Amino acid sequence: MRAHQVVLAICANLAIYGLCLPSGSSSLAVVIANTGAQGQDGSGMLWRGSIFPGEEEVVLQGSVIEIWDQIYSLNPDFEPPNAEPENQAKPGAVHEAEDGWEPYPWTNVQGFTKSSDGNYRGHIPNDWKFNSLKCAPMAMGSMTDITRNVDILSTLPGKCGAPSKACRRMACVNTSALYFCNDLETQLDVDCSQAAEFLQQIMNNCCPNQRTSSGLTRSKEGFSVWLGYGNCNHSPDVPPSEYKLGGGNNKKCKPQQSLFMDAKFKWIITAVEGAKALARNPAEETRLRREERLRRMYPFGLPPRIGIPYPGDVDHW
């Protein structure tokens, strides 16, 4: 089946979204594969690209995985192009971030400069319209599911986007999702691989190496991409801002600590709890202090004559 042979019966219903134009127009054709994908009523993410070599671009709707399904449904022999994406990221000047944007205080935001008010300014060296980054703007998502979807998005050719003044869910698995939000008065799309790069910056800088995270990067070109919580049963046009921080069923991101710090904090907690117990029993305090002094003298276990076996080393002597 060739692209020009696809019946565009759904165009009449999509006209209100500005996606279908009169016959003979040089604008994009709209192709919707009959896969039952979510968001084919105009609420799904928009994808624009060529499915058949040398032929007109088409527009599909749905999540990243659904877009792939539609592409191969229309052209089982589809081969992704190897061309570099437009506006390829490259080193360049630093842009100022918006006031009030601040990542988690424990997040090491590479390439950002911390100002006197505690906020981070600038951006990771990347001259491709990257303007600002914010951590924890919404409920948390699972990094396992998010990483898998960002990887899939990074391989998707063509452009991903949304209608004017709207957000679209790009991917959703379990309780985690990716989003594209368009702040402009006109429809907007960008290279899908570039959107994936923006999302990767969030993953690198908002609670990296943790089980959960959320964040967004905003472009000076009028769009933002988000990652975090998602309810896959909700319509794909529900904006990520609806899922407030603290909601959802994914735990809050916690700062990463070294094993040494974990052990240190555990020791402090144990010491505090021990001090509280000793304060309630002075006689016990005397006995425990003696035991602790002896354990320091005999780190590999206490002689039986002392009468205080070292936990875990009773058979050592």
From TrEMBL:
Keyword field contains Signal: yes
Domain of life the protein comes from: Eukaryota
Cleavable signal peptide: 1-20
Keywords: Signal
Name of the protein in its database record: Uncharacterized protein
Lineage: Eukaryota, Fungi, Dikarya, Ascomycota, Pezizomycotina
